[in-house]
């Protein structure tokens, strides 16, 4: 995917799955805005809700997900108090990995975007293992909207 063909991750209409997180006072820094480390926590909130929801956990027994790569784009500062909405969608699907994207929105404005490469790994060997058909189906259903 080239820069010209990359989707506009700041568009909330592209996301299928949503989570919400609270902007905490303890996440503010000396400048008075939400610290950049909190952005990674917001992405985690969206990712965990999508992948590990106890009612509908995506990985089969004996496997786990690991982040191989994460890119985070800070677009605007966030001020406390408030909440952030996290949009999550699938960007690509490989043999044993896939890429999730997130859009972080406060009061309808995109404040950050993220791409994460996630690998399915075997608990015993600690090595990558092929995605199951069930995982592929769920990831396909959550593909970024055109």
TrEMBL record:
InterPro entries in alphabetical order: 4-hydroxybenzoyl-CoA_TE (IPR050563), HotDog_dom_sf (IPR029069)
MF terms in GO: fatty acyl-CoA hydrolase activity
Keyword Hydrolase: yes
Keywords associated with the record: Hydrolase
Pfam families linked: 4HBT_2
PANTHER family per the UniProt record, alphabetical: 4-HYDROXYBENZOYL-COA THIOESTERASE FAMILY MEMBER, NOVEL THIOESTERASE SUPERFAMILY DOMAIN AND SAPOSIN A-TYPE DOMAIN CONTAINING PROTEIN (0610012H03RIK)
Protein family membership: Belongs to the 4-hydroxybenzoyl-CoA thioesterase family.
Name used for this protein in its record: Thioesterase
Organism: Paramagnetospirillum kuznetsovii
């Amino acid at each position: 995917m080239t820069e010209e063909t990359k989707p506009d991750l700041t568009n909330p209409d592209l996301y299928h799955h949503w989570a919400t997180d609270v902007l905490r006072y303890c996440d503010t820094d000396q400048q008075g805005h939400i610290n950049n480390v909190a952005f990674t926590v917001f992405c985690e909130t969206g990712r965990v809700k999508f992948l590990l929801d106890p009612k509908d956990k995506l990985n089969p027994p004996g496997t786990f997900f690991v982040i191989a790569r994460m890119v985070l784009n800070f677009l605007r500062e966030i001020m406390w108090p408030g909440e952030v909405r996290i949009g999550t969608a699938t960007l690509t699907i490989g043999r044993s990995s896939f890429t999730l994207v997130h859009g972080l929105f406060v009061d309808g404005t995109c404040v950050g975007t993220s791409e994460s490469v996630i690998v399915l790994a075997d608990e015993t060997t600690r090595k990558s293992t092929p995605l199951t058909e069930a995982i592929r189906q769920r990831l396909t259903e959550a593909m970024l909207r055109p």
